[in-house]
Fold this protein.
Amino acid sequence: MTSPLNIASSDPKGRHGLDLKALSTRIGRQQKQFVWALMAAWTLLLVGWLWAGQYLTDQAAREMALAQARTLLAKDLLYRQWNSELGGVYVPITPHTPPNPYLDVPNREATTTEGLDLTLINPAYMTRLVYQIQAKRIGISARITSLKPINPINRADDWERTGLESLELGSEEYSALIENNGQAFMRLLIPMKTEANCLRCHARQGYRVGDVRGGLSVAVPMAPFQAALRGHMTGSVTLGLISWAAGLVVILAGYFYLQRSEKLRVRAEEEIRLLSRAVRQSPASVVITDTSGLIEYVNPKFTEVTGYSLDEALGRNPRILKSGLQPPEIYRQLWETITTGREWRGELQNRKKDGALYWEYVSISPVTSPEGGVTHFLAVKEDVTERKRAEEEL
């Protein structure tokens, strides 16, 4: 452990043998280089932040579109289950609702007592009718799809085929962001699993309860979600540019402040070196300890008086000088005084390294930080052995 005071005092020109003016010039160049590097880093940080913002905005738009797609298809599954549990519903036969030629069940058509002709609407037929209305009203296309469709119109396209194969392997859903005619769509496919009510129509295809017999596919346009988030991204870009400009102003202001304070720093270094020389050349012993009492610095006078070198004293407690002839109450009073932030003064009879006894007049003061906390203890000690001897003779 080496004391900063010792370093400064052993280098009369400043750090590493350079005079302070040359050192200040070199530091000025380093500061300028650092400022340029900091401005470049700040600019790159802004670019990265904007890129990340755009990426997160795109992700948010995808998540919003995917959430809408999930909601739509979850609602469609509920409607299908309602129809399936009822065994289908009858509606009047019209050009819009003709009999389903792919529905091969008994009583597909019926006539009311009033003579109104009805046809049975099964879940698949109902879903197609709902999807036609949905495409016209809100512009979202959806459809039923299958790898083994009864109705050829439900045959899976290439994307759906890949998705259905994934669903058959256990996936809960299959989704992707696609482009069609220059527009982006979030496409989602969820499974239709065979239930007991479904076997009336699908048992002959070999399906069993729990099998994935097809899926519901929907394509949600991304444009509304992207437009909703575009204003947020524009605000983020504006905020980023303002922050970037403000950051540059702060960096430059800090640079000029450092330039102006360099002379003060050089002057402070001069004062530190002067203080170091004064402490080293002091006619009194100087000891600096941490708050636990371990020695961090002693000056040459301490070595001259006690016989302990700097290396021998560092990291040890001043108790190495204790003679054992002083009442313990003195040391308790000393410690209580300095740990409460007050100065202690008094005479102590100590023992040198070679065992010789000597008297010291000791002044111990707490060293505080700018916040007021005690960080070290400073002891200034004067050898008063000769005076004590003269007093005893008198």
